[in-house]
Automatic annotation (TrEMBL):
All residue ranges annotated as the HTH tetR-type domain in the record: 19-79
Stored Gene3D superfamilies: Tetracycline Repressor, domain 2
Protein known as: TetR family transcriptional regulator
InterPro entries reported in the protein's UniProt record: Homeodomain-like_sf (IPR009057), HTH-type_TetR-like_transc_reg (IPR050109), HTH_TetR (IPR001647), Sco4008_C (IPR041467), Tet_transcr_reg_TetR-rel_C_sf (IPR036271)
Pfam families cross-referenced by the UniProt entry: TetR_C_21, TetR_N
Keywords, in A-Z order: DNA-binding
């Protein structure tokens, strides 16, 4: 066998990419936890969906609970990265949050399972993300561009709730695009009325 032939065979072999495997496990676990919660999720289903061995879950994450924590942290990080707050346009921010909820309905389910099964306050990663949003709103209030009718913490809670309440994941949501556009416009308008000075 020639050296060139050996190199070609080596190039055709799958490479070891621990980060790619970790990412596949996180994505598979997000779907599993969204569908079944922490108690109902199964490591073997997660591994099968990720195309990995179940042992890798324990190698990378330590166990199912730690994997759920990693998924939750990933969800929080993704939300902050995908939809950063814009304190100069909070109604637009609410509309973008609505869109993100529509694109990723599993996120609301993962958060719901966290609240149901953990029964505790959200972890520090979520608290830090919310704290940054509160600080941005408070600065906008001090600058006079956002109303002080509600304190910054209340305003963020209202914006987050309004942006999620009529998405495709809610039972009240209609399924057609026209209805979706009306729901989104209503959310944006409601937030505009909350924040206008």
């Amino acid at each position: 066998m020639s050296t060139e032939h050996s190199l070609n065979n080596l190039a055709a072999m799958p490479t070891r990419d621990p980060e790619a495997k970790r990412r596949r496990l996180l994505d598979a676990a997000r779907a599993e936890f969204a569908a079944h919660g922490i108690a109902g999720a199964r490591v073997d289903r997660i591994a099968k969906r990720a195309g990995c061995s179940a042992g890798l879950v324990y190698t990378y994450f330590g166990g199912k609970d730690e994997l759920f924590d990693a998924v939750f942290a990933d969800v929080v990080d993704g939300a902050v990265t995908e939809v950063p707050i814009t304190p100069d346009d909070i109604p637009g921010y609410a509309g973008r949050l609505f869109d993100a909820h529509e694109r990723h309905p599993e996120v609301a389910r993962v958060v719901g399972w966290y609240r149901l099964e953990r029964g505790t306050a959200l972890p520090s990663s979520a608290g830090a993300a919310t704290g940054a949003k509160v600080a941005a709103v408070r600065a906008a209030q001090e600058a006079g561009t956002v109303s002080r009718r509600f304190d910054a913490e209340q305003l963020i809670a209202l914006v987050l709730t309004l942006s999620a309440m009529w998405t495709a994941a809610s039972v009240e949501a209609g399924s057609d695009a026209a209805d979706r556009a009306v729901r989104r416009a209503t959310v944006v308008d409601a937030v505009r009325r909350l924040v206008e000075p």
